[in-house]
Amino acid sequence: MYYFYYIWGDILNIGEKIRRLRRVNNLTQDELANRCDLTKGFISQIERNLTSPSINTLIDILEALGTDISNFFNEKIDEKIVFSKEDIYENHYEDYGYLISWLIPNAQKNEMEPILVTISGKSSTKEDQPHEGEEFGYILKGKINLILGNQIYKIKSGESFYFKSNKSHYIDNPYNKPAIILWVSTPPSF
Length: 190
Hints:
Order of helices and strands: EEHHHHHEEEEEEEEEE
CATH class of the largest domain: Mainly Beta
Distance between the termini: 33 Å
CATH superfamily of the largest domain: Jelly Rolls
Helix content: 10-25%
Shape: elongated
Radius of gyration: 25 Å
Oligomer: single chain
Strand content: 25-35%
């Protein structure tokens, strides 16, 4: 069983953070245990997430590591910057004839969400109802029609679109060849 704490929308691995702090302070598990009046085995179990310390014990451990509970939980974790093909999640909407590739995993937690839409010829995406936000698209391949409210915009490869999402909208590909669109929405809505 693994013990994690849920803090302000993030899951925090307590054991891993304690292990990292102990190593930064050049302490062995035995030295940390002695400073906190605990056993080496208990420190080992905490670091491997086999047990969870009480708040008072956690405070004692953190003091021995030269920090406090406020700084411990507010530490910024390095965000992933570069994403590979293995990170992409795809969902094929066979009934409609298009594929959405989420380029950034868990982008819904960010302020914008980039996707790649591959739409077969003679197909349309599902209609998206009005919502807060803005959307941007760049046509990488083919040509499409953007239906925004009652307006139809014909867009071809190398062109882009940008609109506020306050009208119903969808993409139509009435042509025979597929189209590929880099699409970014803010806030995430896909």
